[in-house]
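FAQ

Q: What does a record look like?
A: Structure on top, sequence underneath. For example:
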């Protein structure tokens, strides 16, 4: 188990506090004292592919680390007891002020996201979202800036998070094959 793996930071059982919290397998630790097993399962995160009527992609600039100042897609973590579709619609609203009228699943990618010096394994779910046209869009939450980028100017290398970069690359390939 590597030093970066989330389970390496858990030294005591969260149920009974025992230090006998030992590696069970590559994804889990088990308490020898009380039998509790903790699995480091992936968290769900979302990313929105949003095009305007001219076919430009809505892009945000990250306000905070990881990858502060780089490009990103609107999105974020899905809350407990929330569907992925509701999560992406909420994240778009929080980051842009826009209201989604549709969120259609496209594909997913695995990711490792560093937060507070802790590696969180995620499954990033990419959605094609449609916005209600009426509302003006303004950056908020963890988006420092947002703008519409012409598809021909979208460069995956400008996106700071590896899974978003790969997702943009994959989506561009899909987009161009449908044109």
């Amino acid at each position: 188990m590597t030093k970066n793996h989330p389970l390496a930071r858990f030294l005591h059982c969260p149920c009974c506090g025992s230090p006998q919290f030992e590696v069970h397998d590559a994804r889990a630790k088990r308490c020898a004292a009380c039998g509790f097993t903790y699995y480091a399962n992936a968290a769900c995160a979302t990313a929105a592919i949003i095009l305007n009527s001219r076919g430009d992609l809505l892009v945000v600039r990250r306000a905070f680390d990881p990858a502060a100042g780089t490009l990103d897609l609107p999105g974020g973590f899905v809350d407990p007891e929330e569907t992925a579709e509701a999560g992406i619609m909420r994240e778009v609203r929080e980051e842009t002020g826009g209201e989604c009228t549709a969120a259609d699943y496209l594909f997913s990618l695995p990711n490792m996201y560093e937060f507070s010096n802790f590696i969180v394994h995620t499954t990033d779910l990419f959605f094609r979202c449609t916005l209600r046209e009426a509302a003006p869009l303004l950056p908020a939450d963890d988006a420092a800036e947002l703008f519409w980028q012409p598809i021909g100017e979208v460069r995956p290398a400008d996106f700071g998070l590896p899974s978003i970069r790969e997702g943009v690359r994959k989506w561009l390939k899909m987009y161009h094959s449908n044109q």
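Q: Is there anything notable about this one?
A: The helical segments are 84-96, 162-177.
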